[in-house]
């Protein structure tokens, strides 16, 4: 099963989408992207991580 996560799912105007077999792989890839491309979009890394985790977890279920 492949899981995906996009910036648009979290309200960002960005075409980035990442896919992987596990939640961990998807979240790692997504957070690397956010840290390099969206440094001014979020106040804290933990905030975006929690939002992304919730979306990915729902998809994996």
Question: Topology of this structure?
Answer:
Layout: E1 3-6, E2 17-20, H1 23-37, H2 45-60
Antiparallel strand pairs: 1-2
What does this protein look like?
This protein is of the alpha+beta class. It has two helices and two strands, in the order E-E-H-H. The chain has one domain. It has a two-stranded antiparallel sheet with strand order 1-2. The chain is globular and about 35 Å long. The relative contact order is 0.23. The model has no long low-confidence stretch (mean pLDDT 87).
Summarize the structure.
By secondary structure, the protein is α+β, with helices and mostly antiparallel strands.
Terminus-to-terminus distance? 11 Å
Oligomeric form of this entry?
single chain
Mean pLDDT: 87
Kindly estimate the percentage of residues that lie in beta strands according to DSSP: 5-15%
Task: List key phrases describing it.
61 residues, two-stranded antiparallel sheet, 51% helix, alpha+beta
